[in-house]
Amino acid sequence: MTAAGTDQPANLAKGEEFCRRAASVGADVALFPEMWNVGYTPCPDDDEGRRRWQALAVPTDGPFVSHFRSLARELRMAIALTYLEQHDGGALRNTVSLIDRRGEVALTYAKVHTCDFSMEAALTPGDGFRTCDLDTAEGTVRIGAIICYDREFPESARVLMLQGAELILVPNACEMERNRTAQLLARAYENITGIALANYAAPQQNGRSIAFDGMAFEPDEGSRDMLLVEAGADEGVYVAPFDLEALRAYRRRETWGNAYRKPRAYGALVSPDIADPFRRDDARR
Fold first, then answer.
1. In 56, 104, 243, 245, which residue has its Cα 20 to 30 A from 212's Cα atom?
2. Is residue 264 domain-resident?
């Protein structure tokens, strides 16, 4: 989809329309692009513009999210809704809430790797990665979420895999080009997880929403294409059919994931130290 800037009533109405379209073609989960309620509109640099932008934030228990909770209950379809969140103590977060088909919030995740080199310096980073068991008409699936720039760090998807994620949802708001698509493919491959990304359509971004099923090889070890769906640049509803039983069988027999990792050698991964050439004055640990 493309958003109507910061016009929240218009974005709410369009989001509902697309959710209804997704339900009509049998989707179990509808996934929004990043920070949908404000259309990922940047925070202005001037004080007055910044205050107006901050005032657009919505709480998880407010009417914007509640509208989609009611819609999920009506459609009997889970909805992964994204928004600029008004959090505790006035903090603002870049958030996705996974609403189950009964209208309950099963998972709320705030973006950990905020783009601190951009307008996202105005946001408070999330405090960790989370998964939940999502009940669907086809059974229960363990789901986690990362948001846009989280993709750039393999630890994001790795932590979700270690928490049992079978499917990772990725709201997005940047150009999806060859390198980022390959990066997402690698996250699915190395963690043996399904992964689905929803991006803004052109001209807001370039579309190319995409999903991979996480199964790189056949039982006879022949390579297979993990691509489930890749959208074009235009708006639309695209369905990615994940075969969970096949994925679970693949996870039981293959060597990636967690079986042969050597965590004792990974100490540097949790060190806060930064060395040249990667020092940045605006980096937040």
1. 104
2. no
Q: How far is CA 66 from CA 69, 222, 248, in A?
A: 5, 47, 34
Segment (H or E) for 70: helix 63-75
Q: Is residue 275 part of a domain?
A: no
If residue 19 lies in a helix (H) or strand (E), which one and from where to where?
Answer: helix 8-24
| Tens-digit pLDDT profile for residues 54-89 | 999 999 999 999 999 999 999 999 999 999 999 988
Domain count, the chain: 1
Q: With the CA atoms of 84, 85, 91 and 94 taken in that order, what torsion angle do they form, in degrees rounded to the nearest 10?
A: -50
Residues in the chain, overall count: 285
Domain span at residue 217? Answer: 8-259
Share of the chain above pLDDT 70, in %: 100
Residue 66 domain flag: yes
Within a domain: 34 = yes
Residue type, 108: T
DSSP assignment string, 191-240: HT-EEEEE-PPTTTS----EEE-S--B-TTS-B---EEEE--SS------
Local structure of 94: helix, strand or coil:
strand
